[in-house]
Amino acid sequence: MLFKQSLGQTNVTSLVERVSRFTVLLKNANRRTKPVMTKIVKAVRDLPVAGRRSITFDRGTEFVSWPHLQAQLGTQTWFCDPSSPWQKGTVENTNRRLRRWLPRQRDVAAMTELELKQLCDQLNKTPRLSSAGLTQRSPGAIKTDSRGAL
């Protein structure tokens, strides 16, 4: 998620598991590939294998070192076609929900990691209905449930 340039280069990367809708939010100082990918690896490494089978990226320059991700985690990576946000609809929907708390004019650089984690926890506690017609359980509940996707 990008914010007004006048507020600096700080941005937020959102990762969403497709079945459970479990969300991870990462604050980045800029869009340089190495720090962004390092944070993604660190965040995804702790998830169960079922929760990190694949990641679909947009065409941002911060994702050019995707082979690093594949090599370290064994995670398949996919890229959306240019100007095709519907190819990662779950992330786009999640970003739209996040804009309630993170509008474009918000200074994310001033936001603490704890505040971002609390926002992520709030999102994961909110029940969400999937297009597959699954129950309307929260992503956090599905993650902790042994029968769930994660």
TrEMBL record:
Domain Integrase catalytic: 1-147
Sequence segments annotated as region (Disordered): 130-150
Molecular function terms from GO: nucleic acid binding; transposase activity
Tagged with keyword Transit peptide: no
GO CC terms, sorted: cytosol
UniProt GO BP: DNA integration; transposition
Keywords, alphabetical: Plasmid
InterPro entries membership: Integrase_cat-core, RNaseH-like_sf, RNaseH_sf, Transposase-Integrase, Transposase_IS30-like
PANTHER family, sorted: TRANSPOSASE, TRANSPOSASE INSI FOR INSERTION SEQUENCE ELEMENT IS30A-RELATED
Full protein name: Integrase family protein
Originating species: Salipiger profundus
